[in-house]
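Thread: ATP-dependent Clp protease proteolytic subunit, structure

OP (GT): Posting the sequence first so everyone is looking at the same thing. Length is 315 residues per the record. Can we get the C-alpha cells written out before standup tomorrow? I want them in the notebook alongside the other entries.
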Amino acid sequence: MAAAQLSSCRVATLVGSRRHGPYRAARQQRQHIVAAVHGTPAAADVGDLQRFQQLWTPPAAQLVDVQARGGAPAAAASAYDDHKPRTPPPDLPSLLLDSRIVYLGMPLVPAVTELIIAEMLYLQYKDRTKPMYLYINSTGTTRADGETVGFETEGTAIYDTMCFVKNEVHTVGVGVAIGQSCMLLSAGEKGKRFMLEHATAMLHQPRVPPTGQRQAIEIQIKWREVLAQKQNMLAILSRTTGHSPDKLDKASAAGGGWWPGLALGAGDMQRPLYMQPADALAYGVIDGVVTPEKKIIDDVKSADQWDKEAGLVAR
C-alpha cells in the first residue's frame, strides 16, 4: 500500500514537472531580466542582460527627422544603427514648386485658380529675382467637350497675378491651351513664351454657362457682363499678341446689329481659332517652339540632392 502511494506521488510529480516546467523556466528568465532592469545585474545572467538591451533599447539617439531639419517635404525618414536613411520620395507638386514650376493641368475652376495664384505669390515671397515657369495643359473655362465649367474671371485673376508679381513668368504650352488658357500662354514674359512640338493652342470667345430659366432683365444683365469680359480678353490679347481688337474680333468695333456692340464680322475669334506651334509663333502667341535639343529650365533636383542640401548625410 505504502509502495503504491509512493509510486503515485512520483508519477504526479513527474507529470507536474512536465506540465509546468516551461512556465517555470519562462518565469525564471523574466526574473533575470527584471533584476537587470532594476540595476541588479548580479542576480541575472550577463548574457540575458546583453540580449535584453539589444532587443529593447531603441536607438533614439540615431533617429533622424528629415522634415524637421529641412529635408524633402512630406518625407519623414529615420535611420537605425548603421543603415542608410530611407527617405520616401517628395510629393510631385513640391518637387516642381522647388524648381519654380507652376503646373496648370486642369480646367480653370475656382479651386484651381486659388492654387495657381497661391503658388505664384509663394514663389515671389521666396525669391523676387528668379523667374517662375507656368506650364499650361488646360482647356480653360470649358471641358474638353465644350461644356462651360468656370467663370471667365478665373483667367483674368491669374493674369492679374502674373502682372502683379515682380518675377518674370515664363510660359510653356503642353498639350492644349484653349480659350483663357491660351490667353495666359500669350501673357508670359516676352521672349520666354514657348510651346512643345505637338501642343495645340486655340482662341475662342467667352462662353456663358447654363443658367436655366431667367427673367429677361437677368439675361440682359448677364449678357452685358459677358460682353465686358470679352472686351477685357480682347484688350489682353491685343497687348500680348500685338494684334488690334478689330483683327481679333471684328464685331468688337462694328457696333449695330440686334444687340449693341454685337455684329457679325470677319474677326479671327468669330470662330474657334486653332493654332499649331508654328501658327501660334506666327500669330504672336508664343516666341519659340521647344525641341529636345532646346533647354528652357534647369533639371529638377533629385531626392538625394534634397537631403544633401538639407545637411543629411547617410550613415
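GT: Both are above now. Quick notes for whoever picks this up: The chain has eleven helices and seven strands. Residues 68 and 76 are 9 Å apart (CA to CA).
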